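Input:
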Amino acid sequence: DAGITQSPRHKVTETGTPVTLRCHQTENHRYMYWYRQDPGHGLRLIHYSYGVKDTDKGEVSDGYSVSRSKTEDFLLTLESATSSQTSVYFCAISESKGGYQPQHFGDGTRLSIL
Amino acid sequence: DQQVKQNSPSLSVQEGRISILNCDYTNSMFDYFLWYKKYPAEGPTFLISISSIKDKNEDGRFTVFLNKSAKHLSLHIVPSQPGDSAVYFCAASARDDKIIFGKGTRLHILP
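Output:
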């Protein structure tokens, strides 16, 4: 299994509070991704990183920011959480950007915004 | 606009029979296709992939077929086993671009 650790695994918080999710990898892969999974929507890309300090927006980036100060860590921040951000969040890593090198996923963070 | 479509939200198949999961895509620039499997409370795991230069790829019980003219791919699982009960995501990418996922199909293997 790819060495990907997401923390926390579960979190419940209130609307308007800031939330940071962490993804840590031990594979030294260049690319890291944050997805959210919602019923009826599948997996949707929030942000991704192609190197330290290099990030770009995905399909559903509004309300989210990311940072990557080290190869192994990719942080996802909800500056002011809203109920619509209740979801399961997955981190993924890959050696390259396209499908030639499949992405490997962490086990997810279940986030509930009350 | 959905570029990768899995039109069947769920599918039930008898144990031992063939499971066929379907996926359609709209972007003719896609050149690599993947299937992922997901169990509850776990992350998706890569299952099998196929390049656009092929029309079939096999790995044990799993075979993916690609029909480029119809922009359609399918995943065949033979024979289906109880452990195959999961959500299956179809995904595609175009030349070093991001992977786009479908909404998933929940497969139930019946005893």
